[in-house]
């Protein structure tokens, strides 16, 4: 729902105020305290930035870190990121990790439309772990 609002409000903003650089030159607003999704940075940098802003978000907030598939076998790295977020007082923290399961053969990894093992398109995609 929040994501939808980011598009609609941007449309309305543009029709009223036009396109302003760094304000309305994208298709949608960045909501809440988030670092814009097009910025590439380490999870630690993102936590550093967002942890300074959590106090301004009167309606609550969440910090996400989006990781690529490589981390799923690296529990120490995951733990380090979670601990870092806790140390920085992030009130609500989530990590997105691609984790796809083929419902035909049970293979699990990061794959998007098709199972690399059996070519099935009957797959379940998990992208978020919250806690
Ligand atoms: Zn399969």
Short summary:
The chain has 131 residues and is α+β, with helices and mostly antiparallel strands. The protein has three helices and six strands; from the N terminus they run ααβαβββββ. A three-stranded mixed sheet has the order 1-2-6, covered by helices on one side. Strands 4-3-5 form a three-stranded antiparallel sheet, with no helix packed on it.
Count every beta strand, where a strand is a DSSP E run of 2 or more residues: 6
Helix-strand category: alpha+beta
Side by side, the strands of the main sheet go 1-2-6
Number of domains: 2
Helix share, percent: 25-40%
What's the shape?
Answer: flat
Mean pLDDT: 82
Report on the biggest sheet: 3 strands, mixed
Unreliable spans: none
Q: In angstroms, what is the radius of gyration?
A: 18 Å
N-to-C order of helices and strands: HHEHEEEEE
Count of DSSP-assigned helices: 3
